[in-house]
Amino acid sequence: MTPDTPGKESLTHNPFAGLAVPGIAPEDVAAAAARVQAEKAEGAPPPWHVAKTKKGGYPVSVERRAGGKVMTLVRNVSGDAEALLSALRKHCAAGGKALGDLVEIQGDHAEKITAFLREKG
Question: What is the CATH number of the domain that holds 112?
Answer without folding.
Answer: 3.30.780.10
